[in-house]
Specification:
alpha/beta, 6-stranded mixed sheet, 10 strands
Length: 260
């Protein structure tokens, strides 16, 4: 599939999706959101892809925010539809993807950019990164899950302060908050993401999908995460990966998971 706003590279079981609008600091517009949805969907359905890495082109920005020019004249109904569609098409979609998604934040991750990074399963950041949700400075609030995912990751008080002040935090502060897992120099960012991806790929992709579902269940209203875990745990016993993993352990050899 040909894309105008993103690049998609696949190698050794890793799909790297690069948001490629450098003149706009990789800002998200509706076309880019649609292309990202398509790329994530295709990568997730490809049995050869075990991990997805998401990053931005250039050295300045992961995603500097949403493309404000697209919605500056929206009314109440249109604004609500914009948020609902974006969450369904991309942000919630990524969070619930069965393939692990690593965000490699390479510079500014602001507004919709930080919301996109937070929808990924975990995050790495280059040392020059700056993160924030500045929406209230525009008279609006985060609409792509930011008011929900940020408190989950950094705690209610810190999320309240970040959103109310519309300020940015640097990579070190993001690491201290638990917003990102690792901080590294920019030229080491993708190699670090690929190194972590290679560790993930040694394990059962089927079990990892069940783990994603169980972990996410804890954050869904009306869902008992413990029950979800029990169900997911039980599901693993019916897989070829479970048979291979347990057999390999008992036979003292390295597992060769079929992904089934």
């Amino acid at each position: 599939m040909n894309y105008e706003n993103i690049l998609l590279n696949t190698s050794n079981g890793i799909a790297t999706i690069i948001i490629n609008r450098p003149s706009k600091l990789n800002a998200l517009n509706r076309a880019t959101i649609q292309e990202l949805h398509n790329a994530f969907k295709d990568a997730d359905s490809d049995r050869d892809i075990k991990v997805i890495i998401l990053t931005g082109s250039g050295e300045k920005a992961f995603v500097a925010g949403a493309d404000i020019s697209e919605f500056a004249d929206f009314n109440v109904k249109e604004g609500g539809k914009l948020a609902a569609k974006g969450q369904e098409l991309l942000f919630n979609f990524v969070e619930n993807l069965s393939t692990p998604v690593i965000a490699a934040i390479n510079g500014f991750a602001l507004g919709g950019g930080l919301e996109l990074a937070m929808s990924c399963h975990f995050r790495l950041a280059s040392a020059n990164s700056k993160m924030g949700l500045p929406e209230v400075s525009l008279g609006v609030i985060p609409g792509y899950g930011g008011t929900q995912r940020l408190p989950q990751l950094v705690g209610k008080g810190r999320a309240m302060e970040m959103i109310m002040t519309a300020g940015m935090i640097d990579a070190t502060q993001a690491y201290n908050y638990g917003l990102v897992n690792h901080v590294t120099e920019q030229d080491e960012l993708l190699p670090m993401a690929e190194k972590i991806a290679s560790k993930i790929m040694r394990n059962s992709s089927v079990a990892i999908t069940q783990a994603i579902n169980a972990i996410n269940a804890n954050f869904k209203e009306g869902v008992d995460g413990f029950k979800a875990e029990i169900e997911a745990f039980g599901n693993c016993f019916g897989t070829a990966d479970f048979k291979e993993g347990t057999s390999a352990f008992l036979e003292k050899r390295k597992a060769d998971f079929p992904g089934e």
